[in-house]
């Protein structure tokens, strides 16, 4: 018979640290106690739900890995590095193997980013993972609201790989893109120099158009992007699909020859006004990609 | 048409603070930034799900209030006071009024405990609220694992009121107990002196037998409780039902005349051995209440 305790036992080895420079009280009590770090704490919450954020036939290892990765992406987008996480897991599986597999996916990503699980909750219901991430700024916090007219717009990698991975998975087609969907790599190595040089920053989770749109709205500016300069996987819909987990940032042109920044993709420029114009063959493209919204 | 943005707008007034002694960056960016407090942070996660933790016909105000209250209870059980929360909300309502009502319940409890909402996420699906609570110790952190043989066992209020409230709600019966179920009061005023005097502490969310059982297990001791000394609402099943959100703590008999502690209910004593014996009419009662588990 399965019980909350059986399930929590699967996670126990991940939270078995008696005393630590970071965590004073780990799992097994009512709450975790985190040692004060004398550094401002960066925190975000991200829910990943079956049939909404990942397909019904996803492997539990991949559900765990992906749910944590996409939550970590919000820290990278602030110029912050991850330090610990907690998880609210809902699952209707009655098979303890499911939880062991989930835990192994969790362990893989904890090890990959050298972060700790400090606690969480488990309850019965349709599979959903609420991941709480915590970290600290590399240098300074980079907001969405500080893009300036004349700043260049960069993305850290190609768009549409996650979208393609999901299509390939659904079509039972073996492809390297499937890893982009289930095991996206979060560019913390880039986040480090972005934290030093960028004027604004966001992760591309809901699609470039929506996410760059958020920078424009909060910075009260517009943007012009050049279609030919955007690395895509398939077609123009890669600009609005999401599931990319690359970073989009803006930065003064004075930094354009910086050794790190010059390796990213410069896709356009911040302009006065509002909204985003896509330029293709020197003319404005009419494109109505709204980006991802789980309610639409 | 409803969208994540429409919904987030309902919450906006709760997170509209530009700069603050606690929060440097609130909602509207990728993550919140919390100013370092030079105090160890206490953190817990609690999921409340429709049809599991609250009935399907619950009011959105009550769903919000109750979900936050039961999560705060874990802080009280550590001897900690609450400072801020974040929320992962899942809902399938397409009615913006639902979210406005949810927000008003949320606002009520934020105001009651003088705490702040620092961020969260919203996604489409069956109603579920993942509440992340954050706070700091009043004095010292009180663990589950430090009860000593000879310590007295206290509870801060009667058991079974929440259970009765749920029964009355389901039977469409007006009763004062309904508030105990939907709007439980978390005894932070008691948590303050418990933090000074208690050897161990837990909140009674899964039923006294299971929760005191957790103290016994982690402290490697047993307990003897006297049925006649336990304030109950209905019958012996109040000892294992849960939904109480009172605190159970143990404390050395040297503190039994303390002005605060003497106001709580002394229900028994920590003994050597393991497990809990219930004494009624001077003999041991055979009682198999296992306590709440959402998987059983």
In short:
Chain A has 296 residues and is an alpha+beta fold.
The SS-based structural class of chain A is: alpha+beta
Strand order of the largest sheet of chain A: 8-10-7-11-9-12-13
Indicate the percent of residues in helices of chain A: 25-40%
Chain pair sharing the greatest interface: A-B, 68 and 67 residues
Write the layout of secondary structure elements.
The structure is a homodimer of 296-residue chains.
Chain A: H1 4-11, E1 23-25, E2 32-34, E3 41-49, H2 60-76, E4 80-91, H3 96-113, E5 116-124, E6 128-137, E7 152-155, H4 161-170, H5 177-182, H6 188-197, E8 200-203, H7 208-219, E9 222-226, H8 238-241, E10 247-251, E11 265-271, E12 275-280, E13 283-285
Parallel strand pairs in A: 4-5, 9-12
Antiparallel strand pairs in A: 1-2, 3-6, 4-6, 7-10, 7-11, 8-10, 9-11, 12-13
Structure characterization notes:
The first copy, chain A, is α+β, with helices and mostly antiparallel strands and 296 residues long. Chain A is 29% helix and 27% strand. Chain A has helices spanning 4-11, 60-76, 96-113, 161-170, 177-182, 188-197, 208-219, 238-241; strands at 23-25, 32-34, 41-49, 80-91, 116-124, 128-137, 152-155, 200-203, 222-226, 247-251, 265-271, 275-280, 283-285. In chain A, a hairpin with a 2-residue loop joins strand 12 and strand 13 (283-285). Chains A and B meet through helix 1, strand 2, strand 3, strand 4 and strand 5 of A and helix 1, strand 2, strand 3, strand 4 and strand 5 of B. Strand 3 of chain A pairs antiparallel with strand 2 (32-34) of chain B.
Task: Please supply descriptive tags for the structure shown above.
homodimer; alpha+beta; 296 residues; 13 strands; 8 helices
